[in-house]
Amino acid sequence: MISLLLNSNMSGSNYSELVKTFEQYLAENTFSGQPENLYNPMNYMMGLGGKRVRPVLTLLGCEIFGGSVDKALPSALCVEIFHNFSLVHDDIMDKAPLRRGQQTVHQKWNEAAAILSGDLMLVKAYEALLKSEMSLWPRLLETFNNTAIEVCQGQQWDMDFESMEYIVMSDYIEMIGLKTAALLGASLSMGAICGGATDDEAYKIRRFGELTGLSFQIMDDYLDAFGSSFEIGKQQGGDILANKKTFLLIKALEVGDERSKKELIDLHVDSQMDPKYKVEAVISIFTELEIPAMALEQAAKYNDLAMKEIMGLGLEDKQLAPLVGFMNFLKGRNH
Amino acid sequence: MISLLLNSNMSGSNYSELVKTFEQYLAENTFSGQPENLYNPMNYMMGLGGKRVRPVLTLLGCEIFGGSVDKALPSALCVEIFHNFSLVHDDIMDKAPLRRGQQTVHQKWNEAAAILSGDLMLVKAYEALLKSEMSLWPRLLETFNNTAIEVCQGQQWDMDFESMEYIVMSDYIEMIGLKTAALLGASLSMGAICGGATDDEAYKIRRFGELTGLSFQIMDDYLDAFGSSFEIGKQQGGDILANKKTFLLIKALEVGDERSKKELIDLHVDSQMDPKYKVEAVISIFTELEIPAMALEQAAKYNDLAMKEIMGLGLEDKQLAPLVGFMNFLKGRNH
């Protein structure tokens, strides 16, 4: 996603510079040690790339409050290692064969190596964080600990949801808040803390990140069904084929009449159906129920709430620009 | 193992008191949160009991250097949570159905819940540690991080060894040093740090713990084949039936002639054989090669080295007594 971000002509911080700064720090801090079956998976995973959204947010959060990005590099590395740890373990749980177009760790090595290299990445996330200035430790560690707890909770809720027939929308929002939005918020606020933000400022920018994260996840759900393959970088309807409980499905089951509900549930549990037909049939019901507009509206609502959070900070336009740019980028993916 | 310890009439600290103090702190710090499928496995695992060797060592380490045990309770909880985290994940990797006579977490819930509750326990180990006095954070966190890394390395070596035909003894010692001894050493030294030990004192007591841990693991290997079921609390020959590469097997392949090596390897790979016959046949070769005496000698050697480490500390007899008691307890299991 940040590839689009990199091309946007925003005022304020230069995203490609921040990515470059982070990548250089990452290269200076590759994992080294024995045995190879432990360390190779870790470096493989970190090397798969991804868009480095979280560490860039950390560096951005620091800059906004006037800090030199160097101060936030340990936190940036921490959140990126943590994110990759969670992906390694999630991929085991989801039995996913691919990640970023490459073999997942448990597929390329084995499940034991994936569990263990994930564990060590979690330890290494703490180790990275402890390279921060010691005076920042209490606030950074508290934020990071609480966020790590939330991400684990979110992932377990997500798994619990798999075996539940109906999910209430508020529960879904809480789940994505924990699983996805919490780390985006924490990435910003840890950077802000490094940059000299007060507790109140760090709280507000974290809320901005979380609310933007909610918007992002709903857009992600929307684009899976209604974006072009070009926009989403993967096959259209992947969530539908994986029978995932997305914003779209939950909303459709909430607002639909009995007939469309029954059709959706029948389609949802049918794993024998022709994939193309299944995706088309589900999308057609979503469209009929006007779910796409509701998703866009909900995403916009979270963006508005996010804006309100940072407007209260009294930042200058120059400081606000990169944050607003980030939000616009997220909004802009579907247009 | 500590049940014997509790009954020993040693001078110095009262082990049962320390266990009680720890259990009370543990009870005040049970995990609470949602979802249940995340938190119940964590409390289930901590509640399976075990002998609380590591947290007791932490409290002991603190007392030896004159600290009130209260100061070391966060560290004690940290090492016990960490130990249990490692057991939850190891049990998945080993596909173990039972732990302490009860169902393992992945068996009672499922593998995903076991991965995730283990992950959260690792986070909670850090959280527990951060309840220590802040002035102690740098030394405690450094010790704990390094130890967590070592334990992961040790577990991966152990798994790597499974698919290797020959293991060199020095590699085996390094593996058990990382997987088992490191945390025993760290438990003592983190307590010592809380009690006011200098870096040198904390280092020496950690080395004492590590060397005693090596001795302990070799005795564990020995007792599995040559202890009575009463002494070891489980079926005799369990390691032999699980085709584990123990000190005994590695030593036997090191010193045996071609005939006994071949016999051992044939027995080792045979999974169809009558269990009773297999255990007897392997034990008979071990005995013929005088492996039991070599194991006892090696264990005694590590105990002597452990004693040398703490003799250099200039502790009073009163302070030394509980440590020597601990060592004697470990030595004493086989007699």
Q: Can you give a write-up of this model?
A:
2 copies of one chain form a homodimer. Chain A is mostly helical and 335 residues long. Chain A has one domain: Farnesyl Diphosphate Synthase. Chain A is 74% helix and 1% strand. Chain A is built from 17 helices and 2 strands. A two-stranded antiparallel ribbon of chain A has the order 1-2. The interface between A and B is large, with 37 and 37 residues.
Count of the separate structural domains of chain A: 1
Greatest chain-chain contact: A-B, 37 and 37 residues
Main beta sheet strand tally, sense and closure of chain A: 2 strands, antiparallel
How many helices of chain A does DSSP assign? 17
Q: Please name the CATH architecture of chain A.
A: Orthogonal Bundle
- Helix and strand composition category of chain A: mainly alpha
Q: Oligomer, anyone?
A: homodimer
* Percent helix of chain A: over 70%
pLDDT averaged over residues of chain A: 90
CATH topology of chain A: Farnesyl Diphosphate Synthase
Encode the helix/strand succession of chain A as letters: HHHHHEEHHHHHHHHHHHH
> What is the 3D shape of chain A?
globular
CATH superfamily label of chain A: Farnesyl Diphosphate Synthase
For the record, the CATH class of chain A is Mainly Alpha
Radius of gyration of chain A (CA) equals 20 Å
Q: What percent of residues of chain A are in strands? A: under 5%
Strand count of chain A: 2
